[in-house]
Amino acid sequence: MREGMLPSTTDAGFLVDVEDWSEEIAEILAARLALQLTEAHWDIIRFMRAYYLQFNHLPNARLFTKAVENEFGKEKGNSRYLYRLFPDGPLKCACLIAGLPKPPSCI
Q1: What share of the chain in percent tops pLDDT 90?
Q2: Alpha carbon 34 to chain centroid, angstroms
Q3: What SS3 state is found at 9?
Q4: Which domains occur in the chain, in start order?
Q5: Catalytic residue from among 18, 33, 67, 106
Q6: Using CA atoms, how far apart are residues 9 and 99, in angstroms rounded to an integer?
Q7: Given this model, what pLDDT does residue 1 score?
Q8: Active-site residue, 95 included
Q9: What distances in angstroms separate CA 49 from CA 46, 90, 94, one per listed residue?
Q10: Nearest to residue 2, comparing CAs of 19, 23, 25?
């Protein structure tokens, strides 16, 4: 998929419709953030999609880190690890790449 074929996004780059997401689109969104996705990124991205689709809301940054810890353990459920993966803000970047809405706690 070429970038010109990206579904509608907000001014901040988030997909307008969560249903428009695919892993191919996630790669394009990540490239816009200068991120090369690894399996570690995909773990968090897939987790966030599942979380959102199950609970129909997004956690704040603290609850996001705690939810990651509950799912993957302390090694991955901490700010240092998450910022290594998503230097521009773990919750914001993971949601953007996962095709989810902009978290309310992100400015």
Answers
A1: 87
A2: 14
A3: strand
A4: 7-97 (1.10.10.370)
A5: 106
A6: 9
A7: 47
A8: no
A9: 5, 14, 9
A10: 25
